[in-house]
Amino acid sequence: MADRMMPLEVEILPLAHAEGLPLPRYATQGSAGMDLHAAITDALNLAPLQRALVPCGFSLALPPQWEAQVRPRSGLALKQGVTLLNAPGTIDSDYRGEVSALLINLGEAAVSIERGMRIAQLVIAPVARVGWSVSQSLSDSARGSGGFGSTGLRAGGEV
After folding, report:
1. What separation in angstroms does the CA of 65 have from each of 86, 124, 129?
2. How many angstroms separate the CA atoms of 75 and 89, rounded?
């Protein structure tokens, strides 16, 4: 695992159709995600409920046991209703194709996606590998087998 004080070195391959666009980068010192830009030639008109796979113009070579998560941009989701259909989208360490964002317009009006527009964010995270330990029963917990909605809507478990 990378030292938290030292940046993780990740190979990135800018693609020809992204010429002039910035590489993914953090907007602020405290940002968890790096902005991803639309590497498209012509504007894309995204109608309500329409989805589109938008290329970001680069490929990665992540180290083993690391992933890249493509996540929505909160401002784009709030202001225009555009989010990611598979949020977060996972990029595995052995994938070498172009990073893209699977956008969907959940808003009421069409949205124009333009070249260079910040459309998503990329978070790099460690991945834990597990080995299964088959058991005849599981230890008890406060929640038990309670599933969807079992903890209630309010603090204290109230509905």
Report:
1. 21, 11, 8
2. 18
